[in-house]
Amino acid sequence: MNTGELTELGQQLRVDSVRAAAAAGSGHPTSSMSAADLMAVLFAHHFRYDFARPDHPANDRFVLSKGHASPLMYATYKAVGAIDDEELLTFRKSGSRLEGHPTPRQLPWIETATGSLGQGLPVGVGIALAGKRLEHAEYRVWVLCGDSELAEGSVWEAAEHAAYEHLDNLTVIVDVNRLGQRGPTRHGHDLDAYARRFQAFGWHTVEVDGHDVDAVDRAYGEADSTKGQPTAILARTLKGKGVAAVQDREGLHGKPLPEAEEAVAELGGPRDLHVRVRQPSAAGSPPARAAGHLELPRWDKGEEVATRNAFGEALAALGTARGDVVALDGEVGDSTRAEFFAKAHPERYVECYIAEQQMVATAVGVAARGWTPYASTFAAFLTRAHDFVRMASISGSGLALVGSHAGVAIGQDGPSQMGLEDLAMMRSVHGSTVLYPCDANQTARLVAAMADLDGIRYLRTSRGESPVLYGPDEDFPVGGSKVLRSSDHDRFTLVAAGVTVPEALAAADALEGEGIAVRVIDLYSVKPVDRETLRAAAEETGCLVTVEDHRPEGGLGDAVLDAFADGRPVPRLVRLAVRNMPGSASPDEQLHAAGIDAESIAAAGRLLVGEAIVS
Amino acid sequence: MNTGELTELGQQLRVDSVRAAAAAGSGHPTSSMSAADLMAVLFAHHFRYDFARPDHPANDRFVLSKGHASPLMYATYKAVGAIDDEELLTFRKSGSRLEGHPTPRQLPWIETATGSLGQGLPVGVGIALAGKRLEHAEYRVWVLCGDSELAEGSVWEAAEHAAYEHLDNLTVIVDVNRLGQRGPTRHGHDLDAYARRFQAFGWHTVEVDGHDVDAVDRAYGEADSTKGQPTAILARTLKGKGVAAVQDREGLHGKPLPEAEEAVAELGGPRDLHVRVRQPSAAGSPPARAAGHLELPRWDKGEEVATRNAFGEALAALGTARGDVVALDGEVGDSTRAEFFAKAHPERYVECYIAEQQMVATAVGVAARGWTPYASTFAAFLTRAHDFVRMASISGSGLALVGSHAGVAIGQDGPSQMGLEDLAMMRSVHGSTVLYPCDANQTARLVAAMADLDGIRYLRTSRGESPVLYGPDEDFPVGGSKVLRSSDHDRFTLVAAGVTVPEALAAADALEGEGIAVRVIDLYSVKPVDRETLRAAAEETGCLVTVEDHRPEGGLGDAVLDAFADGRPVPRLVRLAVRNMPGSASPDEQLHAAGIDAESIAAAGRLLVGEAIVS
């Protein structure tokens, strides 16, 4: 396309953005209009993609980090022939594929859900990393960001990561329209301010008038030919460009244009330009990912092994059996034991340093390319990436997340290092699986099982050693549990997981010595829970006592209720959990202070069978 | 102190760090040793503080962002006479004030809990902002960071915020010892790499040999005299400095020295130097914070008002009555309605732009200085700051957090913008209060009540308009609820909050028309819950049906169980919550698709009284 055609295409994208938002009665046309020329030039001249074959391994990848500019994305899909005008006007309506913020659920050309700002570039870094380091593929990754979202620290985690990994297949285009939602951004149209920051982080930068299609074209070419570092294109644009009533004006974020028909006329009216997108450069084939026989590590009953160690060993074994497994670390691989994988498979180990948001975003990116990522850090620090996990679930992303150093059982390091809210966080994620093993063989089996699940899968590991309770050939289906003690005269049921399993068993031993029979369930699958076993325990023993190294809210105690939330009779419930604010102390002292060690459990049990109410 | 004395003091801090970790059998002596000279010079020559009066308004403030170097902090406290040697050796023991990572719970000289890296500088920015902008005070804020933690994006949110606010009362000292936990950092001893980044964000920088006490002294002086911008001191240091067996060596992070006695001898043996810390520069008085009569906004029953609007108006009124209230925004104040406060009290409104971690950290910082912060953004985006909220609860920080745009009820914008996990997140925070009002008058009362609570207080608001159900003089005690419908022949109880309250009332109307009497409870206080009312409803109606615009995990459905977790009989339970993944649709369509609108509630009720099991 020549200059005039590109300019016309930009106007068409504006017109269609305005029309889509007008039809919806909501949406972000002004944020679309600023970036319309940037998109026109990208899709007409540079982006290589087979829209008939979105899974083509050599396709370039595009991420709309400023997800609210979805009208522009959909207008572009219309211009390239992927959707028609009728569908464009279903924008934001119930049942439409064209959601308010893009998601890949129904649109195969979307790489990742966006709409929480500052996440598109981090995920783009993950995709580019997969292309460059894992696949050695030719594709390029293009990310369109807003200027406001550069205030998010996650953008700078991404900038650091991309430059460190020399991702010259990555280009970020920043639509510097100077206006955020509430008003002007910190830096307005000061392109240098943004360029200085990207340069300091090791990027090549280009500053450009984002409405000069030839200049934009040259900038993309410069990005294409820059080697050894990623490129940031800082484009000066005007929000609402092309319609005087809204152009460069405050207070118009996220609103359809007041006079849409007049605006369309001012933009020169509807057009029907069609863009022939460049085809991917190579035939391309999906990367070969050798798969072999899985030989999980095995431990004998009675050995003392930390579940974090079992995780590390199992992950390394899984990596040997499956070429699609990638491990990501937040600079604590020696503690989480992800380092065992690093030693065995350094080419599939990604050190993300202390940047948990970027770690999860990288996982989302490599998962989007078909890899199976396991991202691990301390359970406590996964809270740092909560919003990324939330958005990953909207993407339908397949991630294995592993949090170590769970609970007060870590001991002396104190509360800042203790995962005490992680089960609540992970259970509330849509479609998630939450696993909490108590011994080494169980851990190894669950680590392997995670690889074949959908959605967000979370495994919680512990720092200290614990006895191996199960043989290496025992099965642990997701959604199952293990009844470790049972009789036909159990007075109540202890429901435990992880470090509280041995404590519950010891408490049951003590109570049995006093003539009080107690059932013990190892609820290693916290979500989904084993409804049948819990319901049987409720019917047969009348009372469930949950014991967890976690806050009382959102963890094991709440999870057992999933078995009784349908209106059926509920058993009596007692919840033992961490209600204090721990300080520093030994692991045993911590469990005791929290009231979740064997002695505390036994004491609660005695009160219970004495018919006293435990408070 | 002269050069020799400062050097000796540095050695003493090393010796005491080694001794403390040796006595504990754990801890981070090598990370303490790298920064010992930096601390020696700071506390001997520059830091102004009255240790007998930690609340002195003119005291400088120090934040140990690399919280694992706590032995160094405590060794410094010994050197200044705040603790004695006997207490130093209680480090990390049960009951000791000297925890593995510093917290302010028992040590009045600590400003904020640290140990989750990348949080100290953000909180320091908040304290410096309070000093400069709210208090116009003379004190300086000094933050000691590790180099590894500069990978956290939160550090760059802080860097951006500090430079934008011209916080020349803030100095960050980066202990560039080149070694993280697992191995070398990305940039090793490349001080320029860090300096370039800080400069690009608008900071003054100084590069220095962190073991040359005179050079460090000059660097601090330069920071002191730099006007208009914050200063970053990049100090080249060696981890484990002074002990050949550990100095600058990998694999020794977080471990006591193998031969502590020999190490102490190599460092020249114990010393007993005492530092006279400079006194604060002025007598200083706490800032005057005028308090007047609170005139909350009032609405008439039947008006249609969005609770987010009521929040904004009530907060503005609260700000008029109380001079200690500060509002913080994540660049969405026009949506959350925090902007109403901005218009009334611009001097106490802090725009944090799209940087939720920094928004919460700023709140922690200003709260540490005695202010009462209200930080608000979309409920969904508060997940971005989860780790900061978690750490704030360890600090015992008093924060009001407000999340708007809760649930599927926002409509067309889609799931990325919907707070659907926020109740789970906030309930699991230790000592938190969680409020979810359904009408304008209730919102206003609860906004005011939040100011006087302890710990983390969370209020959830809604985007759309809803009917005013309560008169303006109604009381809404925290921990209470409202029984909106009740009879002596109720077949079950609907427990609702926020947007589901009008839906529950409409469902109850419909069912009443069919001869089915239903109790309705407005559970506006989600944590703590009103145990008495829930228990009475359970006894009298036998079944609780919770209805919430939130994921089934961790929200209202789990909250009601708090009333029955002590072993007492539990009622039958049915949980209506958002189990689907929403797309774009109108608010009404969204509520219906999620099965939480009046029609769905009534349908569930019919099944229930028909004795059918609802699945």
TrEMBL record, chains A, B:
Domain of life: Bacteria
Requisite cofactors: Mn(2+); thiamine diphosphate; Mg(2+); Ca(2+)
Entry's Gene Ontology molecular function annotations: magnesium ion binding; thiamine pyrophosphate binding; transketolase activity
Principal EC category: transferase
GO cellular component: a single term: cytoplasm
Keyword Magnesium annotated: yes
Transketolase-like pyrimidine-binding domain location: 305-468
EC assignment: 2.2.1.1
Keywords: Calcium, Magnesium, Metal-binding, Thiamine pyrophosphate, Transferase
Alphabetized Pfam families for the sequence: Transket_pyr, Transketolase_C, Transketolase_N
InterPro entries assigned to the protein according to its UniProt record, in alphabetical order: THDP-binding (IPR029061), Transketo_C/PFOR_II (IPR009014), Transketolase-like (IPR051424), Transketolase-like_Pyr-bd (IPR005475), Transketolase_BS (IPR020826), Transketolase_C (IPR033248), Transketolase_N (IPR005474)
PANTHER family membership: FI06132P-RELATED (PTHR43195:SF1), TRANSKETOLASE (PTHR43195)
Family listed: Belongs to the transketolase family.
NCBIfam families hit by this protein: PRK05899.2-5
Assembly notes: Homodimer.
Record-given protein name: Transketolase
